[in-house]
Amino acid sequence: MEPGLRRLVVVSNRLPAALKNEGGEWTVKPGAGGLVTALAPVLRDRGGIWIGWSGASDPTVDVDGLLGSFSAKAGYELRTVQLTEEEVRGYYFGFSNEVIWPLFHDLQTRCHFDPGYWRTYLDVNFKFAEQVARHTGKEDYVWVHDYHLMHQAFFLKSMGVKRNTGFFLHIPFPTPDIFMKLPWRWKIIQALIEFDMVGFQTTQDRDNFVRCVRHFIPECTTEGDGAVVTVRTGSREFRAGAFPISIDFNQFANLATREDIVQKTFKLREALKHRKIILGVDRLDYTKGIPERILAIRTLLKRFPELTGRVNFVQVAVPSREDVEEYKDLRDEIDLLVGRVNGEFSFPGWVPVHYHYRNLQREDLVAYYAAADIALVTPLRDGMNLVAKEYCACNASESGVLILSEFAGAAAQMQDYAYLVNPYDLEGVARAVNRAFHWDKVDRRRMMVGLRDHVRSHNIFWWVDSFLQASFSTNLGDFPPVDTVQFEKI
Fold first, then answer.
1. Is the Cβ–Cβ distance between 267 and 281 less than 8 Å?
2. Which of 190, 336, 451, 487 is deepest in the core (most CB within 10 A)?
3. Which GO terms fall under molecular function for this chain's record (predicted)?
4. Residues with catalytic function
């Protein structure tokens, strides 16, 4: 690597490309999810590095060879961290998803505090830190993402490796009374304060974190009253800030007006006989509030029978963690609820709930967004929720209505133009849908224009720039284009 060259290094649990075993043959599949959507356009053609796990735990697989062509096309290096099946069970399915995920989403009764999970979590974090140390230099900016890898700065320091480090938590950070239930709470705080910047989705999340730090370090002080504050804990100083993640607005907006997708949108509306379409789109997860949403639709039809036959609720659930028993139970619960509501209210020619449990191509998803009159985005708790922003970007007609959970991080940004609801209040959600159904065009347009303007100006590039500016006093323009980058020889 050329001395003094600046590179952006992203470290996350998964790479933006995953290996899948299909019929005994390993293939490379582009990654999915909010993090990949957010950062792939940022690293593309900037010659950065992405460090993560490939998704394969078979030691005989030629991971680097399979990912080589993807890396060349993507415009940045991929560096893999090899994990065994046992490590994946303990670190990912165990500590990350049976401890941190439910606890940080205020669902502590779902936690499984297994000490073995914690030990494996630390072992895997050390593996990641070794790769970071090996493939980065002192001039690089190491940006670590999410709850899977909270110990990166701590382990780099323990190895005597000096790096500029930032951390961004994509999920909520809980209040102190919930965080204190974590048996390894102090260890987590010790690890997080080793980063130079700790970023969160909202100021509420940031403040929760600072309050937890203050609980363990009473002499802790903070300075500043904006989105970013400086935290001092004796001899240690770092910054903590709120950086609400976003989307590539233009990408979604342009797709929504592409001729083939306009035709898909028209066919969707025609298939539903041009009734008002209420849309829910979620990864299948118990934090997303899908059962509560279906029950709210049932309440809508009971409380406002005049809407019978005039609306269709379309719920798209993207498969997730299909091997986990809890998620199988959730899928069964949703299937039963859909059958119950359709059995109670449908009549020849009309079924109220259309439920799709499958992955959608990006073009099909955009067509659903563009076709929907109302987006019902009602997670029980969410770090941000990019579905809300994607819906607004795709609403080229500017006639849609966004009904949004007040417990989604997006609510802090979108509250002036979205209809906020409590997802546990079934009657409140039903009243919101009824009101949105009857809103006139002027009100709908005013609200949607406000939402689209906000998402357009606070897009993914704004998010990255705001984090880098606060963390390193730099921005995307400070990273050279790929043709000036001289990669290290593998």
1. no
2. 451
3. alpha,alpha-trehalose-phosphate synthase (UDP-forming) activity; trehalose-phosphatase activity
4. 170, 382
